[in-house]
Specification:
Blueprint lengths: L1 H25 L9 H9 L5 H8 L3 H13 L3 E6 L2 E9 L1 H21 L5 H18 L12
Antiparallel strand pairs: 1-2
Helix pairs in contact: 1-5, 2-3, 2-5, 3-4
Length: 150
């Protein structure tokens, strides 16, 4: 049981430290650890809608709506009405966002380099594989109402 608690504690600590580092590094661009994933998702595929970007970032639509509004106000995103659905819109990066994306990716790689310092390539691959499996399994942890889980 001790090792399992250590695992949760370690994951939480790594997440807090990573968010803090990225918040500090991205502050000069007016971005946060919660906003940059939207830019990266859209750099992979522009013109996606709110539902799609929410799934890719892994948050609910309400959170995405708030973050997208902030990114639009900051000049990073623009939304265009969807020609096939008048209620929906498509999201696109602005030139400002496109200029920041390589800087964001560099900062993420720097962060990963710090986290994996002293690891061999094989250890890095194993860590990525195991964390990916844990992330997939984490989908089973979602709470479905008062005190009940999936």
């Amino acid at each position: 049981m001790g090792e399992q608690r250590f695992l949760i504690k370690s994951c939480a600590h790594i997440m807090r430290k990573t968010q803090s580092h990225l918040d500090c590094a991205l502050k000069k661009y007016g971005l946060t650890s919660g906003s940059y994933p939207y830019l990266l998702a859209l750099s992979d595929e522009e013109g996606i809608n709110l539902d799609t970007v929410s799934r890719r970032v892994g948050v609910d639509k309400a959170m995405s709506t708030r973050t997208i509004q902030k990114l639009m106000a900051g000049g990073y995103l623009e939304k265009v009405p969807d020609a096939s659905d008048s209620r929906a819109f498509q999201l696109y990066l602005t030139d400002r966002a496109r200029e920041c994306i390589p800087k964001i990716r560099r900062e993420i790689m720097r962060c990963i380099g710090i986290l994996t310092a002293g690891m061999t390539g094989e250890e890095k691959d194993a860590a990525a594989r195991l964390l990916g499996r844990m992330e997939k399994n984490a989908g089973n942890l979602e709470c479905k109402g008062k005190g009940s889980f999936k």
